[in-house]
Amino acid sequence: MTRGNRILLSCIYWAFVLYVFVPLMLMILMGFKDSKFIGFPIKSWTLDWYLGVFADAEVVSTLTYSIAIAVLSTLISVVVGTWIAVLLEGRRFLGRAAIFGLTILPALVPGIISAIAFRIYARLLGIEPGMGAIIWAHAVHNVPFVALVVMARLSTLPKSQIEAARDLGADPIIAFLRITFPYLIPAILGASIFCLLLSFDDFVRSFFLGGYEPTLPVLIFAKLRSGMSPEINAIATVALVLTAAIGIWAERFTRRTNKDTNS
Q1: CATH number for the 46-262 domain, one of 1.10.3720.10, 3.40.50.720, 1.10.510.10, 1.10.760.10?
Q2: Which residues cross the membrane (predicted)?
Q3: What are the Cα distances from residue 112, in Å, to 128, 192, 215?
Q4: Residue 158 pLDDT greater than 90, yes or no
Q5: 137 near 118, Cβ under 8 Å?
Q6: Whole-angstrom Cα distance, residue 96 to residue 165?
Q7: What is residue 263's predicted lDDT score, i.e. its pLDDT?
């Protein structure tokens, strides 16, 4: 690679970094502004908006509600997605392509169309808008990501290990629990964190299927309709820090688990 190409790639890289992080930094800074309106210049600074986030019962309740939905929908999607991955990977049977296509379909459908379809189908099934409907929609949307990640991990599993376990008298369930499942743990953990963050940040499906109690993205949207204020920046910053911390922890934990599994 020539020196000119390296300089060009460096410029593209830093331009992308600025494009992504400058708006985030501005959002964080505006949360410290001692005024009811955002914008420059910032004449004085305060922590009141951030302290107010944790003192606001509505925000804390909504945050807890969103985390509960994310955790429950992730658990469902991990169980279903892993089961589908084990069913499909390495097997050839009639209807496999159809099952695979239906599995990944929720990830390909645009969010607004998916949300409308879920709302119509929930009404046909008699499911009332609220926590249950949101968990159902988030879980269905997240299953494809779990299945794809677990299938990719399964494709690298040496078949000789399973065959050796079967030769030693292990039945399929014991072979799965002793050989396959421990090998899948890094992939399952990575997919779980990804689905957790997807569900936590999901606005469209939460908006269409939510009841009287909003999730955090819906609450931020509702506050935006009454005008921008540093309070919104503070709430968004807290959500950003929470998701970033979970992502960083998950990346390190998954890397360590993957190293232990392969060693």
Answers
A1: 1.10.3720.10
A2: 12-32, 63-86, 98-121, 133-154, 175-200, 232-250
A3: 19, 24, 17
A4: no
A5: yes
A6: 26
A7: 57
Is residue 235 a contact partner of residue 220, using CB atoms and an 8 Å limit? yes
Tokens coding 116: 């409308």
State the Cα–Cα distance between residues 156 and 159, nearest whole angstrom: 9
C-alpha 214/C-alpha 92 separation (Å) is 44
Q: Kindly tell me if the per-residue pLDDT of 244 is higher than 90.
A: no
- Domain positions in the chain: 46-262
pTM of the prediction?
0.82
Tens-digit pLDDT profile for residues 46-100:
888 888 888 888 888 888 999 999 999 999 999 999 999 988 877 777 878 888 8
**Got the DSSP string for 27-40?**
HHHHTTBSSSS--S
First-to-last C-alpha distance (Å) of the chain: 36
Identity of residue 106: P
